[in-house]
Amino acid sequence: MKVLAAMSGGVDSAVAAARAHEAGQEVTGVHLALSRNPASYRSGARGCCTIEDSNDARRAADVIGIPFYVWDLSERFHADVVEDFVEEYAAGRTPNPCLRCNEKIKFAAVLDRALALGFDAVATGHYAQLVDGPAGSELHRSVDEGKDQSYVLGVLSAEQVARAVFPLGGSRKSEVRVEARERGLAVADKPDSHDICFISDGDTGGWLAERLAERELAHAGAIVDETGERLGDHEGSYRFTVGQRRGLRIGTPAPDGKPRYVLDIEPVSGTVTVGPRDSLAVSSLSAGRPVWCGAAPTGSSLEGTVQLRAHGAEHRASVTWGTDALAVSFHEPAEGVAPGQAVVVYDGSRVVGSATITATAR
């Protein structure tokens, strides 16, 4: 089998490529150049978009003994991930750029090009497992619960899952680092990437302020409580997300002296509503654009669990769906649920599918 291994320059993707090669697959490594100006994205070892990372990936490919190329996907990444991120915040929603990158870049643009070039599959260093099920390949959680990345892969279609290879799904991160050292890979002790790779200094609010101001979308507004009483002002609703507690800058304390949390964001007027933690509790949600990660489930409902953020808790829930929509009713209230987030549905360890949250109910 001919496999294209996406190599970010980190330890996980390097070991994944090495394992695929050792398994007898015909492997070619590729590093994705996601910015025409790498200095404009994250620097050092904290991201996956730098010249340093490209060089690390190339050295790893040399050690493994596989061909290596760099693909320039900067325009596609900017349009499908960076611009989407800006648009979502401007609309008062909370996006996940890593999830969008998997959907639009690694398993759409890259896979499409790989298939056109005669490859059979794309391998990555994600911590998730593929299991042969009765109706085809199924996506499951990794054995390493702390590193499990099945949530950010929940946007993959059945066709994309069938063309994916995740060599690390049955391993723990500590084992992967030991293996990298044994293989002589220089990235064995390289720190994991974190935060948003295309924001160079980690200041998401400041980064958004520059781009939204340029497009006249950065509107100031009021911070109000649940009764509508004005408590303060802000410079832009994009600086807030549902469930946020810090950085509200409200001069007037709550009557009970307890912290306030962001409950709602109204982007047109710029109004940000805050209130007590109890008011964050959500009993149900609706979501659009459902995607099934394997064979579409039979019937129109499922008793399972859902996950609402990359490393968030699982919530027991009743899930129902139609052609273009999905609804979730929680068995116990969930907190900090924001439109724009992905809700990923699980049946045990299996990822059933995902959808984008459009509304919540308390």
TrEMBL record:
Database matches in InterPro entries: MnmA-like (IPR004506), MnmA-like_C (IPR046885), MnmA-like_central (IPR046884), MnmA-like_central_sf (IPR023382), Rossmann-like_a/b/a_fold (IPR014729)
Site positions for Interaction with tRNA: 126, 341
Catalysed conversion reaction: S-sulfanyl-L-cysteinyl-[protein] + uridine(34) in tRNA + AH2 + ATP = 2-thiouridine(34) in tRNA + L-cysteinyl-[protein] + A + AMP + diphosphate + H(+)
Top-level taxon of the source organism: Bacteria
Entry GO MF terms: ATP binding; tRNA binding; tRNA-uridine 2-sulfurtransferase activity
Active site, UniProt feature: 101, 197
An example Gene Ontology CC term for this record: cytoplasm
Domain tRNA-specific 2-thiouridylase MnmA-like C-terminal: 284-357
Domain tRNA-specific 2-thiouridylase MnmA-like central: 218-275
SUPFAM superfamilies noted in UniProt: Adenine nucleotide alpha hydrolases-like (SSF52402)
Subcellular location: Cytoplasm
Transmembrane portions of the chain: none
Alphabetic keyword roster: ATP-binding, Cytoplasm, Disulfide bond, Nucleotide-binding, RNA-binding, Transferase, tRNA processing, tRNA-binding
Cited function: Catalyzes the 2-thiolation of uridine at the wobble position (U34) of tRNA, leading to the formation of s(2)U34.
Designated name of the protein: tRNA-specific 2-thiouridylase MnmA
